[in-house]
Amino acid sequence: MLDIASLTELLAQPKKIVITTHHKPDGDAMGSSLGLYNYLIQQGHHAKVITPTDYAQYFNWMPGNGEVIIYTEHPEQSAELIAGADMIFCLDFNALGRINEMGELVGNSKAFKIMIDHHLEPQDFDDYRCWDINACATAQLIYRFIVDELNNKKLINKDVATCLYTGIMTDSAGFSLPNTTAEVHRIAANLIELGAPNSRINELVNNNSSENRLRFLGVCLSEKLEVLYEYNTAIITANKEDLEKYEVITGDTEGIVNYALSISGIKLAAFIVERPDKVKLSLRSKGEFPANDICKKYFNGGGHRNAAGGISSDSLEQVINQFKSILPEYKKLLNE
Ligand code: 5GP
Ligand code: MN
Asked: Do 82 and 189 fall within a single domain?
């Protein structure tokens, strides 16, 4: 284990640093990674962000995006960088399975591993940890890491501020979730003062859809939504043909599940989608209902209480039926 003094000492000299985050990175994963990247390069470090997979095009405007390496597109270069790194920052995930094949490479690397994360039940593969499940976003923890632990607020320039603001804005669902504390608002205010163009960031992330994405959403809401009032549960499903017809690309399905949860009285919402090699579930819940429990127990996944995900190798129809068959077990909680 490293302490903050030895970590500070390590960072005092230029190092070879890899920053990585979970597969199909979201706004917090990209915002945290690029925020830290833009911080580290100011100190002369050789830093690289490597994502396990591609990500939504509405994050490709972020400062430093042009330097990101996508593992699936450059596996050899990525493996070389990971093997040769002095330090690896693992951001917005805490289990090596969340970075697909990269997990083995990171696990085998001799580099110091720094985990900065806000998910439950961290795996023990790190040498230094900045972990808080009450944080609304990993970007909030990166801010604390730079300001409180490294004492380097002066290096939060416009680029760093922009990326961290994006992470906080997206993971707090636009400053709306219960973990959007006064501290979160204070950090956001500081980031705006340090140059984050808050209104523009919202525009680039939330008002940047293709026509197809919007039409696909329309079909999901009008034709694919099923409401099970007995269980206060709403389900939206999409099969391969739907995805092909609307040329759905990475990021296009993000947020659809929240529309199902927005129906009055609904406690649990599921978006179940047929991907080429598996069926993916995204669950969201309100209040105390443990969406992560269902994902962990039945769908090889996990996540937070109110936002969780999982996968299955069964057919779409089987997964939908399985999901419905689980609901009676949770009927009491769903009707509280
Ligand atoms: P999403 O529905 O956006 O894919 O995931 C929602 C939340 O659940 C995210 O915070 C994500 O980190 C978590 N999550 C999604 N899939 C998995 C999984 O397979 N395992 C674990 N542990 N968490 C997941
Ligand atoms: Mn996050």
From this structure: yes
Query: What would the pLDDT profile of 259-304 be if each residue is shown by its tens digit?
Result: 999 999 999 999 999 999 999 999 999 999 999 999 999 999 999 8
CATH of the domain at 101: 3.90.1640.10
- C-alpha–C-alpha distance, residues 220 and 259, integer Å: 10
Pair 45, 191 in one domain: yes
Residues pairing with 311 in the sheet: 280
Q: Which domain holds residue 27?
A: 4-206
Mean pLDDT in the chain? 97
For 143-173, write each residue's pLDDT tens digit: 999 999 999 999 999 999 999 999 999 999 9
Mean pLDDT of 36-41: 98
Contacts of 194 (CB under 8 A, 6+ apart): 156, 157, 158, 160, 161
Which residue's CA is minimally distant from atom 15 of ligand 1?
Answer: 309
d(CA 334, CA 288): 10
- DSSP assignment of 262-276, as one string? TSTT--EEEEEEE-S
Same domain for 235 and 188, yes or no, is no
**Ligand 2 center from residue 318 Cα (angstroms):** 30
Residues 151 and 286 in one domain: no
At 45, is the pLDDT very low, low, confident or very high (cuts 50, 70, 90)? very high
**Pocket mutation for ligand 1, best pick of 53, 281, 295 (most atoms within 8 Å of C-beta):** 295
CATH code for the domain of 222:
3.10.310.30
Q: In angstroms, rounded to a whole number, what is the distance separating the alpha carbons of residues 86 and 141?
A: 22
What residues does ligand 1 touch, defined as CB less than 6 Å away? 119, 282, 301-304, 307-310
Together in a domain, 62 and 145: yes
pLDDT value, residue 202: 98
Domain count for the chain: 2
Same domain flag for 290 and 323: yes
Nearest CA to ligand 1 atom 19: 301
**Same domain as 193, residue 50:** yes
Percent of the chain with pLDDT over 90: 99
